[in-house]
Amino acid sequence: MKIIFFWLCLIQLLWGADATIEVVKGVARLTPLAIEDSSPQSTEMSQKFSQMLAADMNVVSMFSVDESYAMAGFDATSPAPAHKEARYLLRYRLVNDGMGGVKADVKLLQDGTPLFLKSYILKQSEMLVFLSHSVAYDINAKIGGSPIDWIKRKVLFVRLTSPRHSEIVASDYTLSYQKVILKGGIYGFAKWANREQSDLYYTSLSDFKPTIYKMNLLSGKKEKVISSDGMAVCSDVSEDSTRLLLTLAPTGQPDIYQYDLNSNTKTRITDYSGIDVNGQFMGDGSIAFVSNRFGYPNVFSTRINSNAVSQLVYQGKNNSSLSSYKNFLVYKARESTSGYGGNAFNLHLLSLNSGNIKRLTASGENDYPRFSPDGEAILYIKQEGSRSSIGLIRFGINKSFAFPLKIGRIQSIDW
Predict the structure, then answer these.
(1) Angstrom distance (rounded) from CA 54 to CA 283
(2) Is residue 11 part of a domain?
(3) Is residue 108 within 8 Å of residue 126, measured between CB atoms?
(4) How far apart are CA 108 and CA 121, in angstroms?
(5) Beta strands in 126-229 (DSSP E)
(6) Which of 414, 393, 390, 413 is nearest to 16 (CA)?
(7) Please, which residues have CB within 8 angstroms of residue 124's CB and are 6 or more apart in sequence?
(8) What does DSSP assign to residue 138?
(9) Are residues 70 and 103 in the same domain?
(10) If residue 48 lies in a helix (H) or strand (E), which one and from where to where?
(11) Dist. CA 374–CA 327, nearest whole Å
């Protein structure tokens, strides 16, 4: 019964996103930039691309972006009349290749002088938002901005479609592009298997026992990893992709295990009569995880082949979700209503080296944080009143962004 209750607690009743962006922290005075369409003719696709670029350049955060749409010649040195105040112009020319793809020429000008020029080939026009992300990445690198490698990565999430059906979906970080990669069963807790994002792990509840599978995205080939009574979840993958942290419940209570993919052997890490879940590899060789050892979810750490368990978090209650990057930990904490004016579930960043804690969010219910693989950003789910969003926090520039959600219920997310 406890296992069933825990599975239900893990299901996040949330909604998913378009490319609209909202800056929710302070913005310094920045140089004006305008985006102009130089395509042979204005189309729905070329206008949508202008919106995508505006959203991405806001995230780049090196310019004050004028989001008004205008057309101008690709080789013109002066801006369109609507953009006469802009010092920087980002121009694009989209041309359909007649085979479902797009060729894009992109130029960045400063006071009429070209700074950046590049041509892009996109084989599938439905992935247009990834072209926008690539342009933003290249311009950020050209101007010398903080690293944004994460902007081009795919996001993996599980969408609940009915009480006994779910889908595993690959998307971009705004969730504006979505491709269903697995459907027709009950799936949960999808996790990228490697940095290249060529494979993923997921849990199938359609089998006799909860079963973890590995799937190759290109071929669709699936192979069974492990099954367990009650519960089977892959919560983390080691940096070299050779070890997994699993939550298994072979005797009725969930515990943390390490699974070695080279030897196909598992090692039990925790042995507790309550609930231990969501193991995360830490930079110092230890494992962080969530446990109800105090009667409510909190964050602890231990080491493989060690009986010692240490409490990591002493602030807030209901610390039921976390993510790690080297010696940093981001976790959710329920905070007192007297301190934060409402039932707040905020995200906090803990440095294991210094012990310093920084609150990352200020209001609403913020959940399911995920570090980007380079540790430069955090993706999470935000619920505030009737509004639901995907949240993005960039550490290098100390800014947060929000993308409205409208895609159905999300059960898990990975970057």
Answers:
(1) 36
(2) no
(3) no
(4) 18
(5) 155-162, 165-171, 178-185, 187-192, 199-204, 211-216, 222-227
(6) 390
(7) 100, 101
(8) H
(9) yes
(10) helix 44-60
(11) 13
The C-alpha torsion from 296 through 312 and 415 to 236, rounded to 10°, is: -90
Report d(CA 175, CA 172) in Å as an integer: 5
pLDDT, tens only, 326-369: 999 999 998 765 544 556 889 999 998 898 999 999 888 899 99
Whether 47 contacts 68, CB under 8 Å? no
Beta carbons of 338 and 308 less than 8 angstroms apart:
no
Please indicate, yes or no, whether residues 194 and 318 belong to a single structural domain of this protein.
yes
60, exposed or middle or buried, with CB in 10 Å at 0-12, 13-18, 19+?
Answer: buried
Same domain, yes or no: 256 and 352? yes
User: Which among 100, 116, 145 is the end of a domain?
Assistant: 145
CB 13 within 8 A of CB 67: no
The string of pLDDT tens digits covering residues 203-236 is: 999 878 999 999 999 999 999 999 998 899 999 9
Task: Please give the Cα distance from 388 to 59 (Å, whole number).
Answer: 19
Whether residue 279 lies inside any domain: the answer is yes
